[in-house]
Amino acid sequence: MSAQNVLNIIKEKGIEWVDFRFVDLSGRAHHISLPASEVEEETFVNGVAFDGSSIPGFKGIEESDMVMLPDTETVYVDPFTAHPTVVIMCNIYTPDGERYDRDPRSIAQKAEEYLQTAGVGTTAYFAPESEFFIFDEVRYESGQNSSSYFVDSEEAHWNSNRKEEGGNLGFKVKHKGGYVPVGPTDTQQDIRSEMCRLLMEAGLRIERHHHEVATAGQGEINFRFDTLTKTADNLMKYKYIVQNTANSYGKVATFMPKPLFGDNGSGMHVHQSIFNGSEPLFYEKGGYGNLSEMAMNYIGGILYHAPALIALTNPSTNSFKRLVPGYEAPVNLAFSKGNRSAAVRIPVAAVTPKGCRIEFRTPDSTANPYLAFAAMLMAGLDGIKKKLDPRALGYGPLDKNIYEMSDEEKGEIRSVPGTLDEALSALEADYEFLTEGGVFTKDFIDNYIGLKRDEAKAVAIRIHPHEYSLYFDL
Length: 474
Prior knowledge:
It is an enzyme of class 6 (ligase). ATP binds at residues 207, 223-225, 271-273, 340, 354. The chain has 2 domains: 3-100, Ubiquitin-like (UB roll) (Roll), CATH 3.10.20; 123-471, 2-Layer Sandwich (Creatine Kinase, Chain A, domain 2). Helices cover 31% and strands 22% of the residues. It has 474 residues and is of the alpha+beta class. The radius of gyration is 23 Å and the shape is globular. Helix 4 crosses helix 5 (228-248), helix 7 (306-313) packs antiparallel against helix 9 (369-386) and helix 7 packs across helix 11 (420-429). Strands 7, 10, 11, 12, 13, 14, 15, 16, 17 and 18 form a 10-stranded mixed β-sheet that branches. Strands 1, 2, 3, 4, 5 and 6 form a 6-stranded mixed β-sheet that branches. It has a two-stranded antiparallel sheet with strand order 8-9. Strand 14 and strand 15 form a beta hairpin. The N and C termini lie far apart (68 Å).
């Protein structure tokens, strides 16, 4: 789409404001809005200036001037603003016109460029399954003399005996019993359908939505796969619309991996494949799961580099509250057909050659999608380049129920890192696969690790309420 086409849309739809957005290292979106009357073709050439020193991990105050250049292919109408507004995603540049090497969206684009120069294929496709909770109330604090959190949901099993105005109507979602029930147990059919309607109006192709396993309003909406950067753009749009739709209903949506103790957390299972033009490169009839050797090598790269990769795909301290056995959590570094406790699953039901793909189940939605998808592609391409065979490396296939295996058998299965600090240490030791082709830079990785170390330390040094239960009376 040309800049003139965007200007035509602004005029035809009576748009009053143009919202220019970019994404920081953590995956949070930021925006600056310009009156539509001030947006001209030159705006798409010269960009919009902003202060990079106010964005964590970007620039120091002595070199803070930065520019975001809009990508005209990302335009959509914001469904939540009172004044008609269009949203445009941007890439970040330095004032001298150089692509900024800490811009997550730029890194995603460089990963796609590297795929083509590596001679493996032309296009990588990604499709995330991003789960979320919809709560009715959230309260939290972390101070010097107090620390607490509280969440509540009308669906939650702990409210089965709550007295409510008008009477308690029952039909609560049982503990770990929320997978695809119908109403009245599923109270969120209409809100998810409204989310889907708005997502479709914003350009996403929605495939389905449903209630998920956990109690207290866990849901999932699946949208159609696309190329790496476009899928990351779509995921940012998805999270924005899900959270703001919930807000319009007087509720709150969160993509936090483990907001509830003792029930299933929210993951972001990422389906991925590589094509050469219209030819699917991951399909080979008769192979394990009908996968080609290229796909097997891609899996080998994902699993071999998984400890480092997880620093980018599961980049929060809360991520590792989800990555514990017993809650469908994919903590086992193995691959399998249909085994949801393995880190890599090969979907086999109703799969066509073009639909043949691998699913990395470990990630969650605290990941910056541009960085996470780029890192997964780079790990997979390294596996292809080095012909890493996951079978020879001892990653499976694992076609057993892991929960029924003996302790001795389980002991032979490698696991994901247990903490964010462990994952960051793994990234420090294994990052070269990310810097191939200049996709990630060493400067970016060092800066990212420093930011995440600070987050881990901030949690580690604070007093946890459960410590009072354990130690106060000693």
